[in-house]
Amino acid sequence: MITIITLGTNLGAKKRDDGRAFDELRPLKIEAGVLERADGSAYLEFGGNKVLVAVYGPRESHIRRFQRPDRAYIKCRYNMAPFSVDDRKRPGPDRRSIEISKITAEALQPAIILEKFPRSVIDIYIEVLEAEGGTRCAGITAASVALADAGVPMKDMVVACAAGKVNDEVVLDLSEAEDKDGQADVPVAILPRSGEITLLQSDGNLTPDEFEKALDLAVKGCMEISDIQKEALKNRYGE
Amino acid sequence: MKAKSGDFVLPGDILGVSEEFLPADWTCDDNGNIKALVIGTVDLDDKNKRISIIPQTDSPAELKKGMDIVGQIMEVRGQRALVKIKGIKDNPRGLVVSFVGGIHVSQAQKGYLAKLTDAFHIGDIVEAKITKTVGIDSIDLNTSYKEHGVVKAMCTRCRHYMKQSGKNEVTCPNCGNKEKRKISINYAV
Prior knowledge:
Largest interface: A-B, 31 and 25 residues
Radius of gyration of chain A: 17 Å
Strand order of the largest sheet of chain A: 1-2-3-5-4
Oligomer: heterodimer
Strand order of the largest sheet of chain B: 8-9-10-12-11
Order of helices and strands of chain A: EEEEHEHEEHEEEH
Helix content of chain A: 25-40%
Shape of chain A: globular
CATH class of the largest domain in chain B: Mainly Beta
Largest sheet of chain B: 5 strands, mixed, barrel
Number of strands of chain A: 10
Number of helices of chain A: 4
Structural class of chain B: mainly beta
Number of helices of chain B: 0
Largest sheet of chain A: 5 strands, mixed
Strand content of chain A: 25-35%
Distance between the termini of chain A: 33 Å
Shape of chain B: elongated
Number of strands of chain B: 16
Helix content of chain B: under 10%
Structural class of chain A: alpha+beta
């Protein structure tokens, strides 16, 4: 794990195709405890993304290969609804969703006190109802709120945000159009209080300076999202 | 941040440092900082210098001494009946892992019980109190109180659920078989 140092960015002046500044997030709304029968749940709207997350457990794993004698196992399923994108998506897991399920579980794992629940499994179901770029980050952010809502002990709330390069400019929170036409995409998940990075991917071409700038920008975005995450839980459970 | 009793906290909030308090329920020591692990309110025990969180969420169900449980009789041996613990009474949240508890013949009812088969049979659903937990696998149960005991008895002849016909007697509506049980006041059928 890497501890990061946030450097100052001065990107607020220029605008993008959708009118946002280079360091501006899309509108974000999070609601906790939306599903009655799940142990914990969250609904997130992030620009055009709509994501619903349900958490069940920790509960007994009936699949013995998922049982760990000393800790719980995180079983994560990221799924895009067939109607979530413009062209109908073929239902069921594909190469991309299997990868995102894996990296989401790994991004959340450092925050959860798994040792408290040996032989059990924590099921996380991420359903993308509408997709508009950055669904993996939206899924991780919503899953973290759902885990807290389920009463799963965590040493911090994981928060994720992407940065990237579009038209030779490093920008925060890429939309779908920017993701398709852009030159690079860097999704980042962090533990906001300690600054530990739990997910760092990089797709595309960036110079070392641009990469550092993108990472700093993503961390700044994560910090903003973290405040909204906390607000969602305060709204549900009251201060 | 130095937390006070009654403060609302979220997972990861720092409550103090390890020189000040001992981390108790739903808190942890993370590199010298005591952190909250769940959403809840702070409970500060100044006398014992312990800090804990009273969760506001439904927390994963864990078995503790004094809790009432619901389970099913798996086996009745000479001195001991084995119970598969299905859940904690009045807690809708399932158990983290399934446990097996034991009811000793001396803990089944008040007074002398000659045979454990006069109190329980395989398949009966029982409510009991946890009297001792050692590690995560050894749990002792007690059914001597009136609200504890069999809440649904199963006929040993036809496996049909039975009706209460006396203080310590149940009758099968299917085959007419009569058997003895340690019956709870909450008997269901």
